[in-house]
Amino acid sequence: MITVLRLGHRKDRDKRASMHVALVARALGGKKIIFCGEPDNELLQRVQTVTYKWGGDFQAEFAPSYRTVLKNFKGAKVHLTMYGIPLEKTAKAIRKHENVLVVVGSEKVPPDVYQLCDYNVAVTNQPHSEIAALALFFREVNGPKALQTRFPRGQLRIIPSERGKNVTKYK
Amino acid sequence: MITVLRLGHRKDRDKRASMHVALVARALGGKKIIFCGEPDNELLQRVQTVTYKWGGDFQAEFAPSYRTVLKNFKGAKVHLTMYGIPLEKTAKAIRKHENVLVVVGSEKVPPDVYQLCDYNVAVTNQPHSEIAALALFFREVNGPKALQTRFPRGQLRIIPSERGKNVTKYK
Which of A167, A150, A120 is nearest to B164 (CA)? Predict the structure, then answer.
């Protein structure tokens, strides 16, 4: 079970990036996303609307303090950072945990996050995207099945097609 | 060799997302990114600055017409879309090609893109992020080595560490 903690959300600036983080967490089989930073009900609602339309049990919530979330979490706490230990070297140890909290920063990550987490993990040691890093984390930790998550009770389902778009609607 | 074609870049709205797309392409071993849409020299320069600082040969350029790029490309043309055939089913065939052009849309993708490409590929059939989809595409097509790309001639290199940040500077 993987929960995502998104740090330092800024309502205007991170509108799209935080939504991308949430969508990735959901699409790849995450259980829940917790946003810290500026409260943003519109963002929570947009995530919930996706779950309502496309199915599954993914949850989104806001927490006022990342420290409280980190301190209370029972399981492995993993911070994604380009400065950390490569994912290839840490994935095996992380997979052993039943519950994982994966922490995704925005522009500036408070220094205590490095201390409060059990693993600081780099998805490549190059500058790139926290959205991509999160996706690759799910892929490495959950294996290829991350891409085959099932989403029961949705109103919409895509029938894969070679050309064009084919969406089935359920009542 | 994977080249990325980013469609419909909008200078203001896609500033960050297009940069993320470029960073992912570079970090995971892509050769080049071609942007279509609104010309944006600042974006090209930001990508080139990353390559200058962090090494490697990654290129960024602007092209006025995606149709011309698609028509002239020699190799497999792959469009990432949530409506396509799952990546797990197409990766094997795509891997056989020496040169791959992977097409990443923004908000609205012109319908002829579905026709001009050889493969329409879905990275999950769920709504998520083109940035994440691109990262997972590199991971599936290039295998785990996508995460171990080397970047010679950079000025900066990270020494992976369990806590904190360790960056070495080269002249």
Answer: A120
**A26–B50 CB contact, under 8 Å:** no
- Alpha-carbon distance A124 to nearest alpha carbon in chain B (angstroms): 6
8 A C-beta contact, residue B57 and residue B51: yes
Q: What is the ipTM of this complex?
A: 0.97
Domain count, chain B: 1
B52: tokens are 């200058």
Q: Where are the beta strands (DSSP E) in chain A?
A: 2-9, 32-37, 59-62, 76-86, 100-104, 119-122, 156-158, 167-169
Report the alpha-carbon distance of residue B106 to residue B40 in Å, rounded: 15
Phi then psi for residue A86, to 5 deg, are -55, 140
In this complex, do A20 and B132 lie within 8 Å of one another by their Cβ atoms? Answer: yes
Residue with tokens 């922490």: A103
Write out chain B's pLDDT in tens, 171 residues: 999 999 999 999 999 999 999 999 999 999 999 999 999 999 999 999 999 999 999 999 999 999 999 999 999 999 999 999 999 999 999 999 999 999 999 878 999 999 999 999 999 999 999 999 999 999 999 999 999 999 999 999 999 999 999 999 986
Nearest chain B Cα distance for residue A115, angstroms: 7
At B144, which CATH number?
3.40.1280.10
Closest-CA residue of A relative to B124 is: A147
Q: What residues in B contact A102, CB-CB < 8 Å?
A: none
Q: Which helix (H) or strand (E) holds B112?
A: helix B112-116
Model's pTM, two decimal places?
0.97
Whole-angstrom distance, CA of residue A132 vs CA of residue B117: 24
Q: Which domain holds residue B90?
A: 2-169
- Exposure string of A50-81, with b = 16+ CB inside 10 Å and e = fewer, is bbeebbbebbbebbeebeebbeebeebbbbbb
